[in-house]
Amino acid sequence: MLRPASRPSYLSSTEDKAQAIAALGVDQLIQLPFTQSLAGTSAERFVTRVYGSVQMSQLWVGADFAMGHHRDGDNAALGRLARELGFKLVTVPPLYDGDAAISSTRIRQLLAVGDVESASRLLAHPYGYVGSVVPGEQRGRQLGFRTANLEPPADRAMPAHGVYAVWVSVGERRYGAVANVGVRPSFGGGRRLVEVHLIDQDEDLYGQDMRVDFLRMLRPERTFESADLLVAQICRDIESAREVFETALG
Q1: Are residues 56 and 106 in the same domain?
Q2: Which residues, other chains included, contact 108 with Cβ-Cβ below 8 Å and sequence gap of 6+?
């Protein structure tokens, strides 16, 4: 809202975050829309309001956290408010992987080069998203590989263009699949799609919600000179994906 031209893409949806918080045993989640009015509120006024509204006993923040208008609520200012109002301030140190702290920026950089394995390790779960299956141009079916097509959300971080081994979840069912993220350069390009081929399955999934979790990049997206060459490569991609699934399942 403050800098719309430079806003980063999200790593998770609001629904994903709510589910993760609920899984930790949290009884109640309150989400406040970030408006111009809220952005102009001082840290002292905001914390005092929260303290009085929910009888706050503890406030947990990151080591470099700051809140409020002009970021006036850094750890030092929040520590002073904690002493004045009578709640406990807990400052959580950064979590490191190797010599670098784990951060959303670092994870986005890994996704941008297709390193979904490292991104998933830092997240502690496979990176993925939920989308609705939309009609495609039926090219996959013409090649002998039926695909379910998903249009990536515009506000979500997506892996680099390429072919990936993925888990696909539809309701309670999970399938191994290969997914092409990109613009299909062999057919003249177009809008970016995630084209998913369920291995050893032939279900009609149009209109259904599907979750795609990325496991490993198999190869970058590239142009093929003929349909036969593309079909041969897809067969190799499927065999490579099977090996990934065998490893993942132990």
Answers
A1: no
A2: 8, 9, 11, 157
Task: Give residue-wise pLDDT tens across range 183-207.
Answer: 766 555 567 789 999 998 877 777 7
| Pair (39, 122) in one structural domain | no
Does position 4 have pLDDT exceeding 90, yes or no?
Answer: no
pTM here is 0.85
Asked whether residue 85 falls in the same domain as residue 186, the answer is no
- What residue numbers bound the domain in which 145 lies? 100-248
- CA-nearest of 88, 46, 84 to 68 is 46
Residues 206-220, buried b or exposed e (16+ Cβ, 10 A)? Answer: eeeebbbbbbbbbee
Distances (CA, A) of 64 to 93, 173, 223: 9, 41, 45
Q: Identify whether 144 is part of a domain.
A: yes
Six-digit token string for 181: 């993220």
Q: Which residue, 188, 207, 203, is CA-closest to 135? A: 207
Which class for 30: exposed (0-12), middle (13-18), buried (19 or more C-beta within 10 A)? exposed
Any idea which of 30-34, 98-102, 129-133, 196-200 has the lowest mean pLDDT? 129-133
> What is the rounded (10 degree) CA torsion for 31, 36, 38, 41?
160
Residue 78 counted as domain residue: yes
Quote the crossing angle between the two packed helices 104-112 and 116-123, to the nearest 10°. 160
Query: Do 127 and 44 share a structural domain?
Result: no
Give residue for tokens 């709510």. Answer: 18
Q: Is residue 196 a contact partner of residue 168, using CB atoms and an 8 Å limit?
A: yes
Is 174 a member of any domain?
Answer: yes
Q: Which of 15, 16, 20, 9 is nearest to 159 (CA)?
A: 9
